[in-house]
Amino acid sequence: MTHPYRHVADYARWDRGVAAVPPEQVDPVAPFPVLLTRQQPVVTAGSCFAQHISRHFKRAGFNFLITEPGHPLLDDGVRATLNYGVFSARFGNIYTSRQLEQLFRRAYGTFDPVDLTWDRQDSRLVDPFRPTIQPGGFHTREELLADRQQHLAAVRRAFEAASVFIFTLGLTECWAARADGAVFPIAPGVAGGTYDPERYAFVNLTADEVVADMTRFIASLRSVNPNVVLILTVSPVPLAATAVDRHVLVSTVYSKAVLRVAAETLASSLPRVHYFPSYEIITAPFSRGQYYSDDLRSVTEAGVQHVMSLFFRHAAGVEAPLAPPPAPAAETPKKSDRLARALEVLCDEELILLADRLPPQTST
């Protein structure tokens, strides 16, 4: 007797590809269509999890492109404090497809959002599109706008120079300005600004909307960089909180399912767009939850190393040395363990859980 599954590869069968394999050796990356070289400029962007990708690229000696390195007189410690080098440009977390698509339009001058700055009660200002990128905020509007102009120039250089663009899709939930549809990485009032339902609306993207956003972004990116290759991943980090009146676990599953479907649709329908299964590696049953920290959100270094070792093996053809974990944030009596983690890995969304400890904000 024969049937269509009799001769499929071992990796296509659960019993041979997952259940019978030691957890640390599970490899869900079937033949991958990209083979990077160490010389190709790689640009990364996305959610909190994307920062792990950039850290490992730098450690492994690949050409991780940084177009916004900070002033040459700054030492490495100051650069790290100011979030230079976390991503290719100093854009902070880009959680949603809409945020990424609007970043391109902002960088190339075809979209000028109404929200220029958000105020804080301490008289400092934050960039609504990078609210935590400058610790302590900006002193003046002129300082903020000058930094933004420099930043957007760096974004253009990154988009135009990338040989490979790796984007980690993180969320479907976001907040948008009613006046012009501009979306933000975090809700107004969490790390700056004031939440006003007359000015801001909640948006929960569908799979079709994510595909449409990303299709527009990819077309725009290729208008300035025709040969760029895109690698999409989905963040395995659950939502910190949901604005939908339901359990956060249900909203998390919805969000990740939407992003995974959208990534598959894009990879199967657009040329030189590929999907890497970092989400599956972290969340699959074989790990028995061991790739999450005690908060059940933060991904452990063992999980990150599993992802990155497979990425380098399949997408670069090397067994690259893995990066050490980031140095833990310094503890002080005023910082909780969660706040220390939020500082260690730049993560705007984590601040939702800490908002009651932050100063009230106002907006302009």
Question: How would you describe this structure to a colleague?
Answer:
The chain is α/β, with parallel strands linked by helices. It has one domain (30-363). It is 34% helix and 11% strand. The protein has helices spanning 14-19, 50-59, 76-81, 97-107, 141-161, 207-224, 248-269, 278-283, 301-315, 337-344, and strands at 42-46, 118-120, 125-126, 164-169, 173-177, 183-184, 200-204, 229-234, 273-275, 361-363. It has a four-stranded parallel sheet with strand order 1-4-8-9, with helices on both faces. A hairpin with a 5-residue loop joins strand 5 (173-177) and strand 6 (183-184). Helix 4 crosses helix 5, helix 4 (97-107) packs parallel to helix 6 and helix 6 (207-224) packs across helix 7 (248-269). It is globular and about 75 Å long. The protein starts with 13 loop residues before the first helix and ends with a strand. Residues 329-336, 338-343 and 357-364 have low confidence and may be disordered.
Can you give keywords for this protein?
10 helices, disordered C terminus, 4-stranded parallel β-sheet, 364 residues, alpha/beta, 34% helix, globular, 3-stranded antiparallel β-sheet, 11% strand
Decide which structural class fits the backbone. Answer: alpha/beta
How many structural domains?
1
The count of helical stretches stands at 10
Query: What separation lies between the terminal Cα atoms?
Result: 72 Å
> SSE order in H/E notation?
HEHHHEEHEEEEHEHEHHHE
What is the spatial order of strands in the main beta sheet?
1-4-8-9
Mean pLDDT: 89
